[in-house]
Amino acid sequence: MRHQAEFIKDYDKLYMTKEIQPFEDGLRTEPAAGSYEWWYFDAKLEDGASLVIVFHTGPIASFTAGYRPYVTFDLSGGNGPEIHREFYPKEGDYSFSKEQCQVRIGASTFCGDLHHYHIHYQDDAVDAEIDLEGRVPAWRPHSGHIFFNDKDYFAWLPSVPEGRVSGSIRYEGKEYDCRGTGYHDHNWGNKVMFFLMHHWYWGRVQIGDYTIVSSFITANKKCGYSEIPIFMIAKDGEILADDADHCLTYTEEDYEYDEVTKKHVAGTIIYDYVKDDMRYKVTYRKTENIERMGMETQLTKWQYPLIWLMGLRGSYHRIGGQAELEVYKDGVLIDSGQAPAIYEQMYFGKDRIRKTERS
């Protein structure tokens, strides 16, 4: 049995092709115990606000069969209101398509075709209509499936690495215009992530004409804390670099202990990609906490003590910051820039500081 977490590159085994198909953004899981799936959208708006909307088939730590869908809506910063909402539909009031992204949970919908997406969020206080028009093609690292043994996996598809956002939010009798840059990805798996991963960092940012999607996943102790680097950079819609397996050096610096999550969080994260005569260095620097929570909110009263006794300490930390890009050719700086960024720390295990650099 495999005990080294790694991306699977055998497309035939997964009934896939190297070219991304619309069904990959449709429903990929069965309502079995341990399975989970979500469709994620975030945007940095022109007024500085961060908007995040996520459609879930159920809790990310589900130990029972069946879908228990819900939607989260978070708006923070900028000139508008702070809005943090969750919507849970009546039993059976949802639908998912296996052909493409066509998700309905109550009156809220998330629909698209790998290029254009329309997201509608509605509850008794908020009514939002958001359009996302992709400017970078759908992409995934290899097959997008990380296997942690012969059968258990986590899958990830950045369907829109970067796109133009437009729309509106109606809240408390007022309407707020939404324009900016956005992102959509799709995640799913067949085993509760607590048992596969220790933690990850993930971030995405638009800096001038450049789009960056980056992540660094650390598997659990059973997999020897295997490290899985992910990095993609595009310019004007063309992907320039994504061979993170062989070309990336990753560094974490400036740790701070967070009293809410009980974890150390890296205040500075550096992705340094070098291939042939080109070098792309991306640095994320933390400036604010957008959202922090313990993972006990995803567990029932009996699940949480059991998870705790097993030594698992789940938490989530969504971070606001600045990202800096440096582009070198033959060692000479030829381009640079910076922009506001959203990145996150997702934790499943005990607090652990990474002490060595991977390259």
How would you describe this structure to a colleague?
With 359 residues, this protein is mainly beta. The chain has two domains: 1-191, AttH-like domain (AttH-like fold); 193-359, AttH-like fold (Beta Barrel). Helix content is 3%, strand content 57%. The protein has two helices and 22 strands. It has helices at 244-247, 303-309, and strands spanning 6-7, 36-45, 50-56, 70-76, 83-87, 94-96, 101-105, 108-112, 116-122, 126-134, 145-147, 153-171, 174-189, 197-207, 210-219, 227-235, 238-241, 248-258, 263-275, 278-294, 315-329, 332-347. Strands 1, 2, 3, 4, 5, 6, 7, 8, 9, 10, 11, 12 and 13 form a 13-stranded antiparallel sheet that branches. It has a nine-stranded antiparallel sheet with strand order 17-16-15-14-22-21-20-19-18. Strand 2 and strand 3 (50-56) form a beta hairpin. It is globular, with a radius of gyration of 19 Å. The chain starts with 5 loop residues before the first strand and ends in a 12-residue tail after the last strand. The model has no long low-confidence stretch (mean pLDDT 90).
Please give the structural blueprint.
Layout: E1 6-7, E2 36-45, E3 50-56, E4 70-76, E5 83-87, E6 94-96, E7 101-105, E8 108-112, E9 116-122, E10 126-134, E11 145-147, E12 153-171, E13 174-189, E14 197-207, E15 210-219, E16 227-235, E17 238-241, H1 244-247, E18 248-258, E19 263-275, E20 278-294, H2 303-309, E21 315-329, E22 332-347
Antiparallel strand pairs: 1-11, 2-3, 2-13, 3-4, 4-5, 6-7, 7-8, 8-9, 9-10, 10-12, 11-12, 12-13, 14-15, 14-22, 15-16, 16-17, 18-19, 19-20, 20-21, 21-22
